[in-house]
Amino acid sequence: MNELDLLWRGMIAGFVIAAPVGPVNVFCMHRTLAKGWRSGLASGFGAAAGDTLYGAVAGFSITLIVDFLVREQARIRFFGGILLVAIGISYLLRRPQPFHAYKERGAGYSDLLSTFVLNLTNPTVVLSFLAVLAALGLADRRSWGLTLFLVGGIFCGSMSWWIVLCAAVNHFRDRFNDRSLALMNRIAGLAIGGFGVWLFVLSRTRL
Q1: Between the CA of residue 11 and those of 17, 18, 80, 158, what are the distances in Å?
Q2: How far apart are the C-alpha atoms of 130 and 9, rounded to whole Å?
Q3: 3-state secondary structure string, the chain?
Q4: What is the mean pLDDT of residues 134-146?
Q5: Pick the residue with more confidence: 145 or 182?
Q6: Is the pLDDT assigned to residue 15 strictly greater than 90?
Q7: What contacts 58, CB < 8 A, 6 or more positions away?
Q8: Fewer Cβ atoms within 10 A, N terminus or C terminus of the chain?
């Protein structure tokens, strides 16, 4: 298998892992609506970095880290669930602001860092990568140099999803007003908090 083939299959894996709806998708959509496409893309970049990190663990078959994530996934989910619930409550309690107050804001490091950390609270992502890579015929070991092309493809595939998502949401951004943005805050809070409760319940079944 050559470098181009590994890059292409890695892109497929990254896109497939990033696309399912989850709290990070809600974050990126909300930030794109509230603060603009730069903030949405920064959030997507953080999520893609998290996917790439877990993809590298799976791609390089770093057994020690995989075993640790599997062993500690209940605790990671527990604290991740608490974090998501807290974020969800903050969205629900947030005072509505005029839509024009958001429009001038750009992206910040907090947008990137928050989604990166949030992505790491779901250790089953690395198991998903192992399954997807096996389905794509990439379960065999290869040299580190070749695996770098696979990992690079994972980042490109994941980032391509966030670009598509942010572009689609930004296209409809001008149709939102103060009232609809306030409603979006409530929906985001309920969705993110709901994901947190789900993670918390999953963690209790494994503790």
Answers
A1: 10, 11, 27, 7
A2: 13
A3: CCHHHHHHHHHHHHHHHHCCCCHHHHHHHHHHHHHCHHHHHHHHHHHHHHHHHHHHHHHCCCHHHHHHHHHCHHHHHHHHHHHHHHHHHHHHHCCCCCHHHHHCCCCCHHHHHHHHHHHHCCCHHHHHHHHHHHHCCCCCCCCHHHHHHHHHHHHHHHHHHHHHHHHHHHHCHHHCCHHHHHHHHHHHHHHHHHHHHHHHHHHHHHC
A4: 75
A5: 145
A6: yes
A7: 66, 126, 129, 130, 133
A8: C
Report the number of distinct structural domains present in the chain.
1
Cα maximum dimension of the chain: 55
> Which residues constitute the domain of residue 149?
3-206
CA nearest to 9, candidates 181, 154, 192, 188: 154
Spatial separation of the C-alpha atoms in residues 89 and 42, rounded to whole Å: 23
Q: Tell me the CA distances in angstroms from 202 to 36, 88, 122, 169, 181, one per residue in order.
A: 34, 18, 11, 31, 31
**CB burial string 183-205: b at 16+ within 10 A, e below:** ebbeebbebbbebbeebbebbee
